[in-house]
Specification:
single chain, alpha/beta, five-stranded parallel sheet, two-stranded antiparallel ribbon, 11 strands, about 15% strand
């Protein structure tokens, strides 16, 4: 087994060289937001989707477009609005008068990286069409099914639900996202860099004409090769048990002796309405391996699990009305789990 781990470590070291190049190119455009960029790369390597939540103006859209540029991928931006139709997303059938046939006109979903901008402003039918694409990597137009690109990744931006015209996403769809990221404001020094480069009135949006242009440093084929290596990254059974304990504690906290430490001593069972599904366990395994890959390691450590636990679990834990009334969020719950569940 040790020989296998060593060989995987050497392969990871070789295959993960592009990570620094990718970060460097994205850093030409994105000031700060290291956390967001890292999680987007992990989502890409894990062959999954990422939901980004934050107020407008935090470079979410710019980061998605820049990532597509750096990996030489086909990029498609879809603005989700209340009047959007499924056909606007996946395509439709157009009648060919000359041939007397219905020909498919494929929609913008047929790309490598999809930016679903303001996803929580669209109606349920559109969300259902997107759900098939995210889960099955295919769409149905008429009586035919069409396979999507490989790699295929949905990067969805979401405004906080308190904003006007937003609606909660269906739980089944939210569960398909590997991560739900909470994007905060940049640090003061990073925001100063934004002021130095993005405050020209010469071009739309304030971007300067001489702003560095990110260069393609990775191909889709390289991403697929990296995924094969990530699958081989070693994870000890103790780490798998730790993951199962974390997820299990969201369903049965008392069975894992986890107490919620609040000023009123409320039990954890009283703040969790629904715990994380088995998809959360799968996501923790895959994302932990991808996180180790970004750190050029051929094995997973508990720190890898801890680093991505909140991003994997926050949208898979449903809190009770009592928790919402006391402003207890899934992030608070995850922090308690990480503090109290025994680490191998």
């Amino acid at each position: 087994m040790s020989v296998d781990v060593l060989s995987v470590a050497e392969e990871v070291e070789k295959q993960s060289v592009f990570v620094e190049e990718l970060n460097q190119e994205m850093g030409k455009v994105i000031a700060g937001q290291k956390y967001m960029v890292d999680r987007m790369i992990i989502g890409l390597l894990a062959n999954s989707h990422v939901l980004l939540e934050g107020v407008p103006g935090l470079a979410k859209t710019l980061a998605c477009k820049t990532l597509a540029t750096t990996i030489q991928a086909k990029y498609s931006r879809i603005q989700f609005t209340p009047d959007l139709l499924p056909a606007d997303l996946i395509g439709t059938l157009i009648f060919n008068q000359k041939e007397q046939t219905f020909d498919p006109k494929l929609g913008p979903i047929f790309a490598n990286i999809i930016l679903a901008d303001e996803i929580n402003r669209a109606p349920a039918k559109v969300q259902s069409a997107l759900l098939e694409a995210m889960q099955e990597r295919q769409v149905t137009i008429g009586d035919r099914t069409y396979k999507l690109e490989d790699p295929f990744m949905v990067l969805a931006t979401q405004n906080p639900l308190e904003q006007e015209g937003t609606y909660p996403l269906p739980e089944a769809q939210v569960d398909r996202f590997l991560f739900k990221l909470r994007i905060g404001y940049p640090l003061r020094d990073d925001e100063m860099k934004v002021l130095e480069t993005m405050t020209s009135v010469r071009t739309p949006g304030g971007a300067m004409e001489d702003l560095p242009v990110p260069q393609p440093v990775v191909t889709p084929e390289s991403i697929r090769e990296a995924r094969a290596v990530i699958d081989r990254i070693y994870m000890d059974d103790k780490i798998k048990t730790y993951i199962l304990d974390l997820v299990g504690a969201t369903r049965n906290p008392s069975g894992y002796r986890v107490q919620f430490r609040t000023h009123n001593g409320r039990a954890l069972e009283q703040v969790i309405a629904v715990g994380a599904s088995p998809r959360a366990s799968i996501a923790l395994v895959i994302a932990s391996k991808a996180h180790a890959f970004l750190r050029h390691r051929g094995h997973v450590t508990p720190d890898d699990v801890k680093a991505i636990a909140a991003d994997v679990l926050r949208h898979r834990i449903m809190t009770t009305y009592e928790a919402e009334a006391e402003e207890i969020t899934p992030d608070h719950i995850v922090r308690q789990l990480l503090d109290q569940v025994e680490v191998p």
